[in-house]
Amino acid sequence: MSPIAHSKLTAQGQVSVPAEVRRRLGVGPGAVLEWDEHDGAVVVRRAGRYSSEDVHRVLFSKRTPKPRSLEEIKRGIRRYARKRHARR
Question: What are the pLDDT digits (tens) for 28-49?
Answer without folding.
Answer: 888 888 888 888 888 888 887 7
